[in-house]
Amino acid sequence: MAHVLIIGGGIAGPVTAMALRRAGIDATVYEAFPAGADDVGSFLTLFANGLAALRAIDADGPVREASCVAETVEFISDTGRLLGRRPLSGSWDDGLGPRTLRRSELCRTLRAEAARRGVRVEHAKRLVDLTVRPRGTVVARFADGTRAEGTAVVGADGLRSRTRTLLDPGAPPPRHTGQLTVCGRTRDAHAPVPDRTYRMYYGQRAFFGCTRAPDGTTYWFANMPGPELPRAALAAATPDQWRHRVTEAFAGDRTPAAAIAAATGDDIVGINAYDIPTTPVWHNAHTVLVGDAAHATAPNAAQGASMAIEDGVVLARCLRDLPGNEQAFEAYEGLRRERVERVVALSAAMAGRAPGTAEERRTRDAEVERRMAEDPRPRMNWLTGYRIDWAAPVH
């Protein structure tokens, strides 16, 4: 009987396990952290395509309950001028308006739903090595000395994927995008955002976005140009240091961005922004990559989680319908590579848009106004309009 070993219990891992179970394939999730990663202050957005992928396996309900919805986006210049307002992608067709929630809450929700469906999740299992036995089964060896055996391995272990390195020792490392991303949340914001709305501020020096949950919590993020911080410096940075860095970046703007950051307590975290433009090797005869392990995306397009969810559902369909790992993995790569690399490129281009001079900012504002006046559906449907037909066979 087929049994898949899934390395990583973040977002892609539990989704892949649930999709495989729905396809009649048993799977176990092995998570490196003792109780899962806890990104204090960090949050994410699931757009319509990510929610639709969860809906394909009837797993969107718990995520909806744990998140808040936004239906409208507003873009505002550093002078405080409204550049435009329009429905957010996905809210205009099948009611799948983008959902906002903490990353740690999404991971907990997906793991809990997977466990409810009978998926086993084992913690403190950091992958060390993979070996293939003569009869074709693959053995995963973990840092605690334990082992697990299965018919296939799915690497869902994120940006610093050990599975990716074992699959291809020459795989390109993550690339720093020249950007730092800071996320926070506060109930003390003095400039509340309208209900079900994302406000995006084009600052003179950085970009700021925020939304408000029904309980009054304002979630915000700031994308700021900056060099890659060493891991030690990143780990040592305090909430107060991140708060000061963000308020300083937006202090010269006539927007509430600096005040929102200043009103934030310890629920604030900063990260280096990375991506992986392309990963040459996605699979071999027994191992395959999903999510950030295959195609890490800069946060600007807010599609990393949705891409990981799509991967898990598509992979499960391929393993359900095609004979043997190799054919299934090849079909999965064929269905996914072009799309995800296009998303990575889009997000990288957004990360590269530096604020520039006053004249360049005026030109940018004019372009934003022009785009906001257009119907976004023809331009964005390829991204957020993507849907997976679970019942359709994979050939």
Give an overview of the whole structure.
The protein has helices at 12-22, 48-56, 60-65, 103-116, 162-167, 231-236, 239-250, 257-262, 292-295, 304-321, 325-351, 358-372, 377-384; strands at residues 3-7, 26-30, 43-46, 68-69, 72-76, 82-87, 99-102, 120-122, 127-132, 138-142, 147-150, 152-155, 175-186, 197-202, 207-212, 218-225, 268-275, 287-289. It starts with a strand and ends in an 11-residue tail after the last helix. It is α/β, with parallel strands linked by helices.
How much strand?
15-25%
Radius of gyration: 21 Å
Category from helices, strands and their pairing:
alpha/beta
| Total strands | 18
Are there runs of 5+ residues with pLDDT below 50, and where?
none
- Please report the number of helical segments: 13
What is the CATH class designation?
Alpha Beta
CATH architecture: 3-Layer(bba) Sandwich
CATH homologous superfamily descriptor: FAD/NAD(P)-binding domain
Strand order of the largest sheet: 6-5-14-15-16-13-17
Sheet of most strands: 7 strands, mixed
* Share in helix: 25-40%
